[in-house]
Amino acid sequence: NDINNCKGNDDYGTLSSWWVWNAFGLYPQVCTKQYAIVRPRFDSIHIHRFGMSSDRDWTINMQSPAIADPSSPQTVSVNGQTMKTPFIPYSLTDAGSAVKIQFTVHSQ
């Protein structure tokens, strides 16, 4: 935590931003225009994008029965559209409206 005598600096925010995206259950893939899907760290997340109206907010929900394998979601939908791959295209999250992402882990 001491880069160029700057106390508390964790590589200029790179690791912090990685953790935040991972906690959302998403991670922007470099040069691909899509997010990789991982298991969110919280059951419900509400994201207000700075400088935008609340009708462009993101809502991320995780449904996970206690008996389910918690390692990864088995079904992911964006605004009601089920994803067929473990990626979400940026185009689905930047359509100028609210984004609702639903992660579901089914009981075994």
**Uncertain runs with pLDDT below 50, 5 residues or more?**
none
- Using only C-alpha atoms, the radius of gyration works out to 16 Å
- The percent range for strand residues is 25-35%
CA-to-CA gap between the ends? 43 Å
On the 0 to 100 scale, the average pLDDT is 77
Strand order of the largest sheet: 5-6-10-7-8
Shape: globular
Structural class: alpha+beta
- The helix content, as a percent range, equals 10-25%
The total of beta strands comes to 10
Overall description:
With 108 residues, the chain is an alpha+beta fold. It is 14% helix and 34% strand. It has two helices and ten strands, in the order ββαβββββββαβ. It has helices at 14-24, 90-93; strands at 2-3, 6-7, 26-29, 34-37, 44-47, 58-63, 75-78, 81-82, 87-89, 99-104. The chain has a five-stranded mixed beta sheet, with no helix packed on it. The mean pLDDT is 77.
Quick structural gist:
By secondary structure, the protein is an alpha+beta fold.
Please name the defining characteristics of this protein:
2 helices; 10 strands; five-stranded mixed sheet; 108 residues; alpha+beta; three-stranded antiparallel sheet; 34% strand; single chain
Write the layout of secondary structure elements.
Blueprint: E1 2-3, E2 6-7, H1 14-24, E3 26-29, E4 34-37, E5 44-47, E6 58-63, E7 75-78, E8 81-82, E9 87-89, H2 90-93, E10 99-104
Parallel strand pairs: 6-10
Antiparallel strand pairs: 1-2, 3-4, 4-9, 5-6, 7-8, 7-10
